[in-house]
Structure to design on (506 residues):
């Protein structure tokens, strides 16, 4: 018989768990409603005012039944995926992103803006509540990447790639986890908030240097979109890891707080 | 159990968001809750600050037409034929001294020129050079009464279903130094597509607030009785009245 089961540890505080799931819901709604808003003008320019000469991404439909995606001047046919997609009412048409992934699930810019501008507040409030509570409790120390962690990044990756037998010594979170969470929570998430704010003509009138720093309003729209893609990438990797590293234990710990080491 | 629950919720959130979000989106209660963010944004951002003013070299070669093109409304078509000689800008409602300005009279008021960016709710932006009379000067001539709170702009186009375009601003935004009754774009008189003879320019809010083809400025205490009651043509169709974001 093996030794006794190790006692479960209380890993996540209530506020961390609530804000984690609220963030999950808010993030999916922000992505869906953001794509709805994008569809109203499906171009991204690296400029202040719209400028076809500085167009980075254009999704369109040059002809009935054809969808195309142009990235840095190179055009790909993306019919049924991008440009010519479902309209959510049984047929297909000229929509950059299909109605199955936009919120709401049919063309409605006003509706998309309502969802987006409300859940932007929810996501920002959750982030702030989590940050303040973690900082007060001192938990941030375990999560934030420090200069001392940097030399351990490659050994940790080597361990994951089975090039190394043991993981380098680390605390609650390993160096790669720290790097990922630090980047997402303190670089990409604030960038997405700031680039979103720069799209507002009212905020631009108060804080124009922010828009200028980002390269202009259309450039801010490009950064905002790129930030969304990076967050989606994190979301995909995060979900993969949860599913492959003891999904029941992982899910239980983020729901009840108790983790079985 | 939890795994199944997780997968079920993830699948319904990702793949089923179309029908689910469509139903939620059309629920009035949900829409009201979501729209509460507008009040927060208005309170926090408000109408403070001045929109950036650009230099001549930033002006776009062609100013993209926002909203509708030249109205087909009979009254407007006749006015274009007569080169706007019959045009009067009526300012009335909750004012001490109602006005009816001819274009020549508007041109004699103090003028302002500003090169500002137009940000469309759809997401695109274009920079243009606008000249005209600050709305504040026109309001000052009409002298809003103590009960005045909003300014409603009634326009000369309809959407084909008989609904006239209209917009509204609060008095604070109306008196903002960059809120302009524009008569010229890029050193030429406004053309019909861009709102001739007089249009609004509100560079601190999204483009749909900048109503074109203005015929009448009505000062009111409340816009609840005007058309759909939400303060504007697009507002009646679900867009925010405060379009600073």
């Amino acid at each position: 018989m093996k030794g006794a089961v190790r006692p479960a540890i209380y890993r996540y505080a209530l506020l961390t768990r609530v804000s984690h799931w609220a963030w999950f819901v808010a993030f999916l709604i922000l992505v869906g409603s953001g794509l709805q808003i994008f569809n109203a003008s499906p171009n991204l320019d690296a400029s202040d005012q719209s400028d076809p000469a500085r167009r980075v991404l254009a999704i369109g439909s040059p002809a009935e039944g054809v969808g195309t995606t142009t990235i840095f001047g190179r055009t790909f046919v993306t019919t049924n995926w991008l440009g010519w997609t479902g309209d959510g009412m049984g047929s297909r048409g000229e929509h950059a992103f299909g109605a199955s992934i936009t919120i709401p699930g049919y063309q409605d810019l006003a509706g998309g803006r309502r969802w987006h501008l409300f859940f932007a507040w929810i996501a920002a409030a959750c982030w702030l509540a989590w940050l303040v509570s973690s900082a007060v409790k001192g938990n941030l120390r375990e999560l934030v990447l420090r200069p001392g962690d940097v030399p351990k990044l490659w050994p940790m990756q080597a361990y994951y790639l089975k090039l190394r037998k043991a993981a380098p010594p680390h605390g609650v979170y390993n160096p790669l986890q720290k790097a990922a969470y630090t980047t997402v929570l303190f670089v990409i998430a604030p960038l997405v908030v700031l680039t979103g704010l720069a799209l507002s003509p009212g905020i631009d009138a108060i804080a124009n240097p922010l828009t200028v720093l980002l390269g202009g309003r259309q450039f801010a729209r490009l950064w905002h979109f790129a930030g969304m893609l990076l967050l989606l990438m994190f979301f995909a990797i995060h979900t993969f890891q949860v599913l492959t590293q003891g999904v029941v234990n992982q899910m239980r710990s983020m729901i009840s707080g108790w983790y079985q080491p | 159990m939890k795994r199944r629950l997780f997968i079920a919720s993830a699948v319904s959130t990702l793949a089923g968001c179309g029908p689910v979000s469509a139903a939620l989106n059309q629920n009035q209660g949900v829409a009201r809750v979501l729209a509460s963010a507008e009040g927060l944004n208005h309170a926090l951002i408000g109408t403070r600050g001045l929109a950036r003013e650009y230099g001549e070299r930033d002006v776009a070669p062609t100013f993209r037409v926002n909203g509708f093109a030249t109205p087909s409304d009979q009254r407007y078509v006749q006015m274009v034929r007569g080169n706007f000689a019959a045009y009067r800008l009526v300012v009335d409602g909750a004012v001490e001294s109602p006005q009816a300005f001819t274009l020549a009279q508007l041109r004699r008021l103090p003028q302002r020129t500003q090169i500002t960016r137009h940000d469309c709710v759809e997401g695109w932006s274009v920079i243009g050079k606008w000249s005209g009379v600050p709305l504040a000067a026109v309001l000052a001539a009409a002298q809003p009464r103590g009960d005045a709170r909003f300014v409603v702009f009634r326009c000369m186009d309809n959407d084909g279903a008989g609904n006239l375009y209209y917009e509204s601003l609060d008095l604070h935004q109306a008196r903002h130094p960059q809120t302009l009754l524009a008569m010229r774009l890029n050193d030429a008189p406004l053309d019909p597509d861009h709102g001739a003879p007089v249009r609004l320019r509100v560079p601190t809010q999204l483009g749909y607030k900048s109503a074109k083809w203005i015929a009448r400025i009505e000062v009111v205490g409340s816009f609840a009785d005007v058309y759909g009651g939400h303060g504007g043509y697009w507002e009646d169709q679900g867009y925010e009245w405060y379009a600073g974001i």
Notes: The CA atoms of residues 223 and 229 of chain B lie 6 Å apart. DSSP finds seven helices and ten strands in chain B.
